[in-house]
## 1
Amino acid sequence: MMEEDKAQKQRILTLLKALKEASRDLHSNPFSFIFKNNTHFKDTIEAFLNLQAKSVAIFNTHPNLRHLSDSLSTIKTLIENLQKFKGFGLRSLIHRQITLHKISQLSNSFESEIQHYLDYVTVRDLVKTMEQGFNEEEQVKVLVEFQQRLSQGFDLDFQDLILKARVFSILEGTLIETKISKRVQEEAAMAIAGLVKFNRNVFVGLVLMSPTIKALITMASSVSIRVLCSLVSFVRSPLVDEILCNGEIPRIVRFLCCNDLSLKVAGFDCVLELGYIGRREVIEAMLEEDLIKILVDLQRREGLLNGRMDDDDFDFDSPFASCVSRFAIILLEAGEGLTSEEKREVKLKILKMVMEASQSDVEAATISAEILWGSSH
């Protein structure tokens, strides 16, 4: 019985999406009907009428879709009236223009009604699936569908549905619930990032006031740290300051010491983003966690120093190639959070740390040269 319900639901959604596309064509090119040889518009009319015939029985028995049936019937009547006035007399031309305009308006309205219902289904299924603890595959499916809808851009009606259903709280709860699989939590994290991009004016505040950032860092996966990095890039100083105030800098730097390469790379990207945006206090907090020593070690372990690799064998795709200078240059050259004087002071401090962390004069000279050549401060 449940499988039958799922199949019926899928048929309805497929039909609605097809009707939405047909309505968009009618709205976009209504006056194409004037041209006798416009086969595309005639095909659109035919497709719409076929879909209308299939929809009547389904919509009339579905309480939430009954109003769509009325709109469909109205558009069908207008199309039939349009086809009756094929002459080129003044009366026919005027009647066609008026009817085409009505078809365009109604099709646009009908498309919006369908989208609103599809959005309602998306939010309803997300809430139901996450709150009732469905299996992992079902949870991942609704989260991915939700992200896809968010990626289409801002929509006030969709935002209202999200806020009324308290979707952010559900996603936040998913992040901090220890019994939920990491795969589901990662999808929830990406959905939160999608919400922030969807409307930063509404959802940035919710992120800053919630345990979301701590949960992302605690999750400690490459996906969660990439989400954190994207949030830092999008929200900028307010989020960086929040990370600093909550004492999360040490944990982020420690990701560079883990065995998971993908997490290590995500951690380095996050460090670069913090260096680009952060104030002096943020930079100092990272340096106090032996960041320069860690980066020197990473660079050395990959065999990128002391001439141990020939130019022909050099791996230009290495995530940690010249990582010390990349960090230094991004905050000294492009960094937004430091004054010119602070950049000069930090530069000297980094050069000193490089000398202390290097195992030889050659190593120290190599890294220092990369920093000096790339930095004008």
## 2
Amino acid sequence: MTDKLLNFIDGEWREPSTGKWAPNRNPADARVVLNEAPMSDAADLQLAMDGALRAQKDWARTPAPVRGKILFNAVRLFEKRTEELARALTAEEGKILEESRGEVQKMINLLEFVAGEARRLNGETIPSEIPNTFAYTVRVPIGVVASITPWNFPVAIPVWKAAPAMVAGNAVIHKPANQTPWTAKIIAEVFAEAGIPKGIYNVIYGRGSLLGSCLVNHPHIDGITFTGSTEIGLGINESAARSKKKVQCEMGGKNPVIVMEDADVALAVQAAAKGGFGATGQRCTATSRAIVHRDVYNEFLEGIVEMARTMRPGDGFDPASALGPSVDEGQMNTVLRYIDIGKSEGATLAAGGMRLMDAEREHGYFVAPTVFANVDRKMRVAREEIFGPVMSVLPISSMDEAIDVANDTPFGLSSSIYTRDVNRVFRYVDRVETGMLHVNNPTIGGEAQMPFGGMKQTGIGEREQGKTAVDFSTELKTIYIDYAGSVRGGNLF
């Protein structure tokens, strides 16, 4: 009999009011049911909201350094449970164990940084133009934050959303992705053990179409932080605007690596393969386009095709696996559909392009690393997010053309250039329309102390991570104090 997970509401583990659960399957072998997740409804959400509203004001009055100390407690507890969390992540999301361990460590780094921000929740003192007046600003929490998170980084993303909100004095209601409920359970256990008060961190499982809509439209939700598709993110933003909720969305990406003729091509190939095929291409920052100068196009193409053929998809617990499965059948079918689209558009299938159905992998959702050559910038495989191990290789003849092609998508999350020319580096930095830019590095990756986010249809609202992390979940108050008892004169607006 499989374990039935429970909602975490107001400090207690509760069954869903519906009495319904859904199986959580291992994407490497869909016959294996890991556990079952609650299928909750609006009644469960209201219980979480009631608890959050009761707890939030006292939490906001708790000194920020005390809140930070509790998050530091969580850091130490996560360190003790790293392997457990990594193995749960590999089991339910599919990524290889090495990548899962890396994600847990990244989460710990993020949490450690944010916990330290408790002593840096600074406003500003600002000189007043009026004599005997002290002017300053302070940051205050917005209230209750809804966190709607994806399945591709189910450890790092929930924590990098919840921790800044909580350290700033907010309560959080977390709606995890249906494909990754197990990791969400462990995160809730750690926060509770660390000392987060009842009602401040809640986890509600269920269908996104139902619970997401309930969260977005609930009158007592003050902010919504979301990572997922552009279509859903734009819908959240539109709905939330009607009730003046703050919104933070990280959405789609179509991240390019530019490879110029003076590049270290072997290094660029390694980076493109890691960025494009690692984590099964299921990263927001995955390298899905290689924009390559014609002088080195064939050399790069031969290298990336060889990497695609060499990197073995398999069970994430198998040390021989270089990448895992798609997270579920629906995502696998999306990837396969885009492969068919690429072929129908006239792109040359240079590697991969199929589901792997041998005896070891027939019950999983494995797609071979895929390379399309001779891709035109107007093809859908060059413009739309696929979220799988599929790379389009586009030829260009100049730096200006490379920049134009790089910018020719609705998205703007991450990008990279491989070149030895410093002049080209700064032209790239100035002109490429992405929120994160890498030079002689893969498009993937980020550090806890640096802002994370994109431009164009990739991002809405303040950046996540870094010193900007608390901006979304706080508001500014501006204060003027007259300390002379005088009648105010001067500029009165």
## 3
Amino acid sequence: MNIKNSILLRVRLAFLPMLLFGIAIVYKIGVIQFVEGEKWRSLAAEIGLEYRAIEATRGNILSDNGSLLATSIPFYKLALDPSRASKQMMDDGLDSLAFLLSSFYKDKPTSIYKQRILDARKSGRRYVLLNRKLIDYQQKKEMEQWPIFREGRMDGGALFTKVDKRFKPFGYLGQRSIGFINENGRGAGLEYSFNTDLAGMNGKALYRKTVGGKWRPIPDASEVRPIDGYDLETTIDINLQDVAESSLL
């Protein structure tokens, strides 16, 4: 055997394991995708991650003089990532935080709030909904100065999830013209006709599905911020509207 043939033989022998390894990878991918695909997709749905929408703040509807006819008022749900705070921070501030939570919500004693946070931290949970009651913006600003919470989202673990509520300051006045829009995108009046402009553009954030089937935001994950909707200026004179509707009653 000459030198050239000897080299070619060695190259082929060296290439053979790589070829077999490549075939094995392709085979395994095929098995996972086509044979076991449904199994793994189901598992991912149970414990996986998913980008979910962050709703944009809906634009205001204004009268001819700039008075608010319809606006979105932000409220917040309070949650905590108990893994964020350091041991020293938790030791120093947890008693005070639990006391403030109990005093504010008036539904559970201080000891319950404290134990709930400690249990969640011990078990490695990354999200604990502290109370289902919605708080307003001023209450949120106050809570942001509480122990542990004052360290912010990254170091303290405080999580405030915004929930917008549509409010019409003049009540029934102009209600037919202002209209409404429901969760399915159906409605009437200005809210429906100008929905694209008022709605804005939703953002995206990464969520994790919990054991109970609920989706919780991942605090340090990347997100796409929403673009709030445009305000709509109308020619509605609320004073004339009041006179007109009163005359019909």
